Amino acid sequence: MSGFADLFSQYDILAAFLVNIELTLWSALFSLILGVILVTMRISPVPSLRGFAAAWVEFFKNMPLTIIMVFMVLGVFGQLKFQFSDNFDTNFFWLAVTGLSVYTSAFVCESLRSGINTVPLGQAEAARSLGLSFFQSASIVILPQAFRGSVAPLGNTLIALLKNSTVAAAASVATETSSLMSTMIEYNANLIVSIFLIFAIGYVVMIIPIGLLTTYLSNKLAVRR
Amino acid sequence: MANKATSAKGASTSASVLFDEPGPKGRRKIFIANIIAGLLLIGLLVAVLHRLANPPQGQNQLSWELWGPALDGEAWIDFYLPGLAKTLEASVIAIIGAVIFGVVFGIGRLLEFWPVKYVAAVIVEFCRAVPVLLFMIFLWRGFSFMGMSDDASFWAVVWGLILYNGSVVAELVRSGVGNLPKGQHEAAVALGMGPVRALMSVEVPQALIAMLPAMITQLVVVLKDTALGSIIMYTDLLQESRRLGSMYFNMLQALVVAAVIYFIFSYLLSKLSESLPARMQRRTMGIAKPPVQAPIAIMDPSNVPLQERAQERERPQGGTEPLYPDHYHGSNAVTEDWRTSHLEHGHDPKHPDMKPKLFQRPE
To answer: Which residue has the higher pLDDT, B8 or B164?
Structure first.
């Protein structure tokens, strides 16, 4: 039992979870911005932009996140010498955020597109008959309703992103949960089950409120038609 | 063929939500915008290639010295193909295990017997919430301590994938049974089956067929997640390409080749899952279209897709569905009974099933 209590004093478990939460929040922000840009391109009347967005989404949807992360560190940083900062930790952190953001942006775009499908044609027709241009009708009429219609898939994407932030281990972010768990098990082999349960329950505790909030918000915000 | 036509039609309607069929002026505008955007995208591509050919430090990334070792026969025979075989081996075993796990726990959650129901629910919700990588690291270390030397990482990858994807399949089974029309259960009970028998011989078989497309989508997730195995030293495609890259100092090129292989496999699988629903729909009363995303939202009691919920029509005052379509599509040339005749006229294309009934005039 004393060994179990020592774990908390010896290792900073909360700090590791904080790293994952930071990774998640930054990637959520950037992937949301990217996803909105992509979905606007995807529904625009210009074929080349539509094609580019479709290719981007198909590419990142069918690509393992691990290979993107490894590519960010060994390819972009190791071989192309591209770096965000001279400090290794900060550099790897932002490389991981970049990888997570481009990967998640494809799923954000798909979620928003499924939200656009819930907007009836009449809304767009009404917007056009008021004389709104493509960008005006997209930003004032369609996308706000699409956001309300895509709360559930966006919430699922956020949950997946939080879980995917553990893959930052592949991008050499050594302070996050899965790397810390690996080290802790290495030095405390007899406590392996309790160490796993600490981290697993940590994730369950973080994810259940997001799921409940998503279900509540998607019921509350859905536009009844 | 018919499926192709309808999907093309669906695509064109969803693409044209925001703009009318453009006139001559609009077409010219779009044409010019198309050219400008195309030039910008090509310019971006050229800039990236130029940067790759002349990096500020290091050597030309497009040279054959780097691409050659990543593409020649030796690389394929010694690295990519053995790695790909390992990746496929793990995915095939994992998907078979996940289906078994999912069907067992999905049925467990549907049973009325509460201890089974709650134990299955807790296990499924736990496995869905914990990141796959944590499972894999835990199992890998655990198997190594138990004395498995060579296969520890392989079985860790397989069991990690089974636990997560199996719990997603369990949710698919549950929502598949929930999406069946109520009549299926009622008919089975009317034939004298008990609730368990009705579940096993009527509802679950149809739910399994209905969820096949979603299962193929899940197979893509399994294939992609085997790459996590490289973190726990499983020699899959990603790990092998890293080894190749560190041998010839062409990591970027080796990873690009591996990425293309992953992409081809999962792209073909996702195309298969898109073409499957039409064929499966004939054999089930459930909805054989894959959900936009597999249900991840934890503790969602219904798993009802949001689009369907949004399309339910709300009647703020309550009451039954209106008897008459209240849109006027007939002619104005009415001289008699003009107060009520618009209710007898016309057919509302938005509600084709609502036939205008003969209006009963108030006495």
So the answer is: B164
CA distance, residue A224 to nearest chain B CA (Å):
5
B residues 154-213 lying closer than 8 A (beta carbon) to A: none
In terms of Cβ atoms closer than 10 Å to its own Cβ (0-12, 13-18, 19+), residue B223 is buried
- In terms of DSSP H, where are the helices of chain A? 2-10, 13-43, 47-61, 65-70, 88-116, 121-129, 134-136, 143-149, 151-164, 177-187, 192-221
Range of the domain at A217: 2-221
pTM for this one? 0.81
CA B255 vs CA A67, B59, B87, B197, B356: distances in Å: 7, 17, 15, 52, 64
Backbone angles phi, psi at B68, to 5 degrees: -55, -55
The verdict on domain B67-297 having CATH code 1.10.3720.10 is: yes
Residues 6+ apart with CB under 8 A from A110: A57, A61, A153, B292, B293
In total, the C-beta contacts within 8 angstroms joining chain A to chain B are: 224
Mean pLDDT, rounded, for A17-33: 95
Single out the residue of B168, B221, B94 nearest to residue A164, CA to CA. B221
List chain A residues with CB under 8 Å of B144: none
Do residue A169 and residue B133 have CB atoms under 8 angstroms apart?
yes
Contacts of A184 (CB under 8 A, 6+ apart): A7, A11, A195
The span from the CA of B19 to the CA of B90, in Å, is 47
Q: How many domains does chain A have?
A: 1
Integer Cα distance of B93 and B234 in angstroms: 15
Q: Quote the ipTM score.
A: 0.91
Q: What is the CATH number of the domain that holds A36?
A: 1.10.3720.10
Average pLDDT, rounded, for chain A: 88
- H-helix or E-strand spanning residue B46: helix B24-53
Amino acid at B131: P
Q: How many CB atoms lie within 10 A of CB B235?
A: 18
From CA B20, how far away is CA A128, in angstroms rounded? 8
Record the tokens describing residue A44, joined without a space: 């625009």
Task: Find chain B residues with C-beta within 8 A of A43's C-beta.
Answer: 14-15, 17-18
For chain B, the farthest-separated pair of C-alpha atoms sits apart, in whole angstroms, at: 94
Q: Which pLDDT tens digit goes with each residue over A166-177?
A: 999 888 888 889
Domain extents for chain B? 67-297
